[in-house]
Each structure stands twice: as structure tokens, then as C-alpha cells.
Amino acid sequence: MKKKRWIYYVLACFLGFIVLSPYIWLILCSLRYDVELTAIPVKILPRNITFSNYYRVFFQPRWQQLNIMNFKHIMMNTIIIACLSTVICLAIGSLGAYAYARFKFIGKGIISLLIILTIMIPGVFILIPLYVFVRKLNMLDTYGGIILSFIPFTLPLVIFILTGFFKNLPEGLEDAARVDGCSRMGVLFHIILPLSLPGIAATSIIIFLLCWNEFEFPMALSAWKIRVLTVALSQYETQNLPDYGLMTATAVLATFPIIVLVLIFQKLIIEGLTQGAIKE
Amino acid sequence: MKEHYFAGILLSPTLLIIGIIVGYISIYSFVLSLQRVNLTGKTGVEYTFIGLKNYFEALANPIVIRSIKNTLLFTCISLGATFCFALVVALVVNGLTRFRGAFVALFMIPWGISPVASGLIWKWIFDPSFGVANSILWRLGIIENYRMWFGDMNIAMYLVIVVAIWRNFPFLFIVLFAALRTVPDNLYEAAVLDGATASQRFLYITLPYIRYTALTGCVIQTVWYLRIFDLFYILTEGGPAYATMVLNLWAFKQSFFFYNIGFGSAMAVILTVITLLISLGYFAIIAKTES
Prior knowledge:
The complex is a heterodimer. The two termini of chain A are 26 Å apart. Chain A is built from 14 helices and no strands. Chain A has helices spanning 5-30, 34-37, 52-59, 71-102, 108-120, 123-136, 143-168, 173-179, 184-195, 197-213, 216-221, 229-238, 244-264, 266-274. Chain B has one domain (53-290): Orthogonal Bundle (MetI-like fold). A two-stranded antiparallel sheet of chain B has the order 1-2. Chain B starts with a helix and ends with a helix.
């Protein structure tokens, strides 16, 4: 057994190279001048490295950029929407998940069925009535409308993931605290929530990622004022002859923060993702 | 305070929202699918009840039939391929003794890249004139001329599948990897003592052990693949000639590009029914494996 270990390392490196190479290629491209980007045949390594594409993303006159919209503005929109949706969903979902994990009550089976159903429902099924609804409220193209549209698909996931974390807390915690004279709310806020902080963090990161990467809902519900990164990126594709330098640099800027986040919180994300699926 | 009152208070916001989604929005979606909706009528939005006509029209429409077939084809092939690739990666990483964490992190990277950005990256790689794929394949002599990869009816779908695998395998990889960690080592040791080969150990120890987890992961991945939208929107927009049109994309286009909201809703309902039927099948299989 021991002798063959190196094969695993060779295979892992090979697979890793295959998986990473498209992204590395994107980064290499974003560091080139336009002349090199559109050279035929393509050179693998850039001859002159330049950060001018990144500079242009940030400092180009507004009218030249991403169809009249400022990159910083789009980035802020994305951050605000992703953060607010995450916070709202976790505030609502953590209470629900706690009740769901720890208490017995009438209709629990029906509720779990409903939660699974909402996870299964395809986005467009919710999106069309939601669009009519948001339109009626005059909330098209606002933060509120987009955040509202995120809740239906993130909330059931929050409950699904968090329930697993709450169930893992030792039994009898509540009873001990209740005997010491703590109220039910007190138990939740002073004991359960602090103890399940890793679980809450894991869920937040996953939800934040999903909101950041979501495209279908903001695409339908926003037009010009409130655009998020995914929508702005997709607009390069519809241009006839896009500015490839800008496109690659924007793509790197849109994905890099998330990749860093994934790498930092790797362990938490794994824990969150496997929470519902793993059975020992 | 009684336990279930307290539970009720905590659950009420969640129930309210889920109730609105499942109750109100779903029913409304169904109601919309029975109507012709004119968003820019003289008196604002105009609704005309037309019964099941949208469904008859949809099921008689060659593009809708095509997109149903494409959705199922895409889901089947992608799911199988993603599962195999994820399993191979998970087995390889599980075989490492050092740097395991680093490799897990590395393989998670595509999952952080949004489908839109993934689409842009791959579209750029397969660009007909400036793409690196053409350049390399041409230099190696595999292709004679530069090709329009996403413009080729026979290739486009398979290329989207490749991109989908690349972007989505990390989820199944993480799930399978975590499942592999739960297989007790002493089982393998015992099997080695009994003279079992590597493939026998995989078939009779590993596979039964990870079956439940693998199935659960597959349900989730299947549901995600059935509703795929972003990748097709960026890579092919359903073209060429509807060769890569999928249900979610066509429903979206009908609703938000052509404003046929009723027709779009009917397609959304069809997609939902397909999704629910397939998940039901899965649950039946899972229930069987558990007993």
C-alpha cells in the first residue's frame, strides 16, 4: 500500500491543473494589452504584463464602462444586496431552524415537506409570479425587490443547513438553563446561538455565496439602476465586439473576492454543505 | 410558556414566508398559466382567462418539446459525468496523506465562481477567433480550421455539459469526500487481510457505505441541473437553432423578453412537475436503500 502513494499525488496534481487552468487562463488574459488578447495564434504566456485593464475598470470615464454604469457602483450593489439578504434570511431562518430542530409540535411533518418542496421548486416557477407581484408594488429595479426575490430560495436552505447544526448540540442544555431560571428566549440568545456560531457562520457564507452568484432573479427584476455583478458581466456577452480586456479584468474582480472567501472558510463551508446529506 | 407555543412564535416568520411562497406564489403561478397576460394593456396589466390553452400550445410547440428533451438529456449526462468526476477526485484526495486540506480547497474553487463568470471564461476559451482552444488544437493538428465551437449544433450541448461539470463538481466532491471519511479504516484492513482486490474493496465496502450520502447529493444536484439557466444563457442562449434550448431558459425568455407571461408560467409549471416527479423517484429509491 505505502509504495503506491505517489500515484495519488501525481493524479491530484494533474486533476488540480485541469480544474484550475481555465481560471488561471482568465487571469493571464486580464494582464495583457488588447493587441495580445486578439492576436492569432494565441500566445500562452503574456509578453508584456500590464494592469491597465484593471485600471480601466476602475477609472475609465463612466460612459465607456459596462454600459453607462460605474464598476464601483455595481460592486457596492452586489455587496449590499448579498449582505442584506444573508442577514435577513439568517435572522428569520435561525429562529425557525431552532424551533424545528429542538421542539415537538403539531404539523412538523407538513412543515418539513413544505421546506423540501420549496428547495425543489425551480426558480422560474417562483420568479414569474414574483415579477408580477414586485411590479405591482412598484419595486422593480430597487434593492428591496431583489432582496425580496432572494428570500424564497435561500430561506429553506438556511433552515435545512442550520437544523443539522442545532441538532448536534448536546441534549439537555435547555433544561439545565431553564432550571437555573433562564427564560426560553434567554436560553436561545445566551446559550444556543453563541454555541452554534460556527454553524451560523457556515450557513451565512454559503448563503452569501449563492446571493453573490445569483443571476436569474436580478436579471429579471432589475434593468438599469440596480445592477449586480453577474448581470453586468452578462452584458459583455451581448455586445457585438466586447472590450475583451475589460471583460476579463471585470470577471477576475467579480470572482476573486469570492474565491478568497471560499479558501478562507473552506472548513466551515464543507461542514455546512454536508450537514444535511451525511449520515454516519 | 408551553413548548409548542414557543416553537410557533419562533417558526412564525419562516412559516409566513414559506406559506406565501408555496401557497400564494405557487397557486398564482398556476393561475397565471391559465391566462393570457398583457403587461402593457390600456388599463395597465390585462388578464384574459383562456383555460388550459397555454399548456396545449406548449405541448404542441416543437421548441418546447425540444427544450424538454434537452433539459432531460443535459441533466442525465451532466449528472452522471459530474458524479463520476467528483468521485474520482474524492477518491484521489482521500488517498493523500499530506496536503489534503490544500487540495480540497483547490478543488472547491470553481464552486465559488459564479455560473455567469464560468460561462464567460469558457466562452472566451472557445472563442471562434481569439480562443485558446482553437489555437492549441490547431497547432497540435487535431483540427484543420478554426471552429465556431458554440455555433456547432452537434458540439454545443456537450461543451455546455463540460462547463457544467467544471463548475458544479465541487459540491458532489465535497459531499462524497465527507462520506468517504466516514468509512471505518479497519474494514479496509480486514478486507486486505482477506485478500480483496482494490476494486472489490471499492464495490463491497466503499460503495455501500457512501450510497445514502451519494444519493442525497445526487437529488440536490439533479434539481439544480433541471433548473439550469445561467450557463445556457451565457454560453449559447439556446442556440444554434434551439439545439441547446432548455426549459428554464425558454420560460424565462418567453416571460421576460417576449412578455408572454402566461405561456412562460405554463412552461414553469411543466418544469416543476418534471422536477417533482424525478425527486419523488429519488425519494422512493432512498427509502428502499434505507430499509
